[in-house]
Amino acid sequence: MTKPNSPAGALGRNLMRVHDWAALATTMPTDGHPYASLVLVAADHDASPILLLSDLAEHARNIAADNRVSLLFDGTRGLSSPLTGGRVSVQARAMRSDEDRLRQRFLARHGDAAGYADFADFAVYHLAVERGHMVAGFGKIEWIDQAELLYLAPGVREMGAWEAGAVSHMNEDHGDAIQLYARNLLGAQGNGWVMTGCDPEGCDLRRGGDVLRLNFATPAHDADSLRRQLVALAQAART
User: What is the DSSP letter of 201?
Assistant: First the structure.
């Protein structure tokens, strides 16, 4: 296991927040064979994965029989030697959830899903993380327990009460700052970026199929500290 506050937990958590899709492994109840599939994913404020799955899908039927899953977040794309890149396999229990906050967070990340999210056969799943297996390159391999992998600071569960309003305010009143974040701080091209969510460690941007992650210098634990982080980033982007 990792030591407290080791870089592996932060790296694994960042991979979970950065990527908007992952490979999901479930177990087929008929013969116990592993089944891998591609799923869209969002991250809760503590980085716990959120899924939206159809009951008609093979992986949903597998989860109904055995809710133990593994989710692979792949940070190796674009590398000339993929095995030198970071990736984390997250072991969790997939739990159906009626919590509207989770549904809204997923839809903010994946706007296209609003076209089918209300279908009767679709349900939101919250992944109760148990541990992760981090590979950060050759010889950099370790298990990460839940307390290290997730962001479990006091008050993180209450962030949903004020984070959505802050994101709406940024998109409606400070769209110019969001474009500066993308271009000047993250090296992206073009305009049209929108903010899809914030958590204590940063915020997420999207333009079509492209996603960006902007990390904060220090964590934001309330609306005021989030505002200060966004203002500081805007100032940095302008200079």
Answer: T
